[in-house]
Write a structure and sequence with these properties.
The complex is a heterodimer of chains A (115) and B (112). Chain A is mainly beta and 115 residues long. In chain B, the strands form two sheets. In chain B, strands 2, 4, 5, 9, 10 and 11 form a six-stranded mixed beta sheet that branches. Chain B has a five-stranded antiparallel beta sheet with strand order 1-3-8-7-6, with no helix packed on it. In chain B, strand 9 and strand 10 form a beta hairpin. The N and C termini of chain B lie far apart (40 Å). Classes of the chains: A mainly beta (115), B mainly beta (112). The interface between A and B is medium-sized, with 25 and 25 residues.
């Protein structure tokens, strides 16, 4: 079945460590996104990519990095520079051509806890 | 700046109607969206409305758009316990239909 797979589902990290969250999609979508979800703050955009080898910062990119070497993969690294990394992270993808444009397909999320 | 606002919580009884409200800021948004998030999961698109429409109905869901006031609402008729979830309003930014700004989300609790 087509969809978006995020891993790991739960992750614990010590302060000062970098951690990478995986996001893979087999929907043949060009665009991919990373959002952060905190209680009472909704979803905030971290990074997005509209095409392979290109990505743009979202509203809260500081302390995060991404790469887009393959169409199906958009990993997010949470670096030690991110001051408050404990959150629920959501990856999404969307089509940029044909039919209705604007539906984001989300993974099930990765919950990161910094100890 | 861009800001999409929603009330944080709504409680209704099973069988009643639910109305979730949202205000947005970008008047150039092409589409406005409602997404649903069930516990511990990602979001799913529930419905959307094109910016030149006032209303859209889809089974138990009715979306109302007031462009003058930049106000969007979602009405769920005959609310069921399975409708309990967080509902997010979202707008597309600057006419770009695949970059969305989400609201804070409204937690809908349906009491049996």
């Amino acid at each position: 079945d087509g969809g978006i797979t995020q891993s790991p589902k739960y992750l614990f990290r010590k302060e000062g460590q970098n951690v990478t969250l995986s996001c893979e999609q087999n929907l043949n979508h060009d665009a991919m996104y990373w959002y952060r979800q905190d209680p009472g703050q909704g979803l905030r955009l971290i990074y997005y990519s509209q095409i392979v080898n290109d990505f743009q910062k979202g509203d809260i990119a500081e302390g995060y990095s991404v790469s887009r070497e393959k169409k199906e993969s958009f990993p997010l690294t949470v670096t030690s520079a991110q001051k408050n990394p404990t959150a629920f992270y959501l990856c999404a993808s969307s089509s940029t051509s044909g039919g209705f444009i604007g539906e984001l397909f989300f993974g099930e999320g990765s919950r990161l806890t910094v100890l | 700046g861009e800001d999409v606002e929603q009330s944080l919580f709504l409680s209704v009884r099973e069988g009643d109607s639910s109305v979730i409200n949202c205000t947005y800021t970008d008047s150039s948004s092409t589409y406005l969206y409602w997404y649903k998030q069930e516990p511990g999961a990602g979001l799913q698109l529930l419905t959307y409305i094109f910016s030149n429409m006032d209303m859209k109905q889809d089974q138990r869901l009715t979306v109302l758009l007031n462009k003058k006031d930049k106000h969007l609402s979602l009405r769920i008729a005959d609310t069921q316990t399975g409708d309990s979830a967080i509902y997010f309003c979202a707008e597309s930014i600057g006419g770009a239909t695949n970059k969305l700004i989400f609201g804070t989300g409204t937690l809908l609790a349906v009491q049996p």
